[in-house]
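tmp note - ATP-dependent Clp protease proteolytic subunit
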Amino acid sequence: MSSRGQWFADITLARSLRYALLGQCVIAAAVLATDLLGQWPTGGASRRDLPQGPVSPGDQWREYDPATVSPSYVRRDPAPGVETPANMPSRLNFSVMETEDLGSLLLVTGQISEGDAEQFQTYLDSMDEVPAGVALNSPGGVVQEALALGRAIRRMEMETAVLPGTICLSSCPYLLAGGIARRVSSAASVGMHQHYYNTPGYLPAFLAVEEIQHGQGRTMEYLIEMGVDPGVMVHSLNTPPEEIYVLLDQELSDTRLATEILD
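out:
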């Protein structure tokens, strides 16, 4: 890379980190405020009325429900070969599917739970031939588990994909980031929001803030490690846990969360 190109890259990274750190300050202020009020915020129903249906520029916030298999903002039915469960599994399920364009893929479906990274590796170890790619259909779940899964995907030098009519929400984009190539259909939905922390009510606010900052720091380091612009976290930091911010194709490309957008 030329010195001028490196300069622009450094400026972009610095700007991304500045925005992400600003978001952390906002969260810290919210934690301190709720501490003064004597109440820690919990998840639950959305605090505002949100539109339904597909997103458009500037209209990208939707209600988040991890149990929903096909949210209203998903543009069409899942791609052929993607089995749609009646209810979203409470932990990841693994199966092999065949696609016309991407060949054999390992379909990963369900919420991300404790132990799923270990189960993923066990499943791969049991296969005679490991597919070159992973297709994701998940509403997210445990962040640290998602980071471990993403690192396992990168270690295996696998590609990742989000196919038409499927979702990759909350912590699932960290699995997407693990792919050496990352393909997202324009008819899929990739979304982010603030991570939910089960912080005990008796925990002092400064300790809660410290834990949140450590968690965000770990995810930022992970994204940089995977070659993804950590500035994408601005969208997660600005979106409460009960909502989801659905990324546009351009945002996916600009932040390198997707290396290719599929029609």
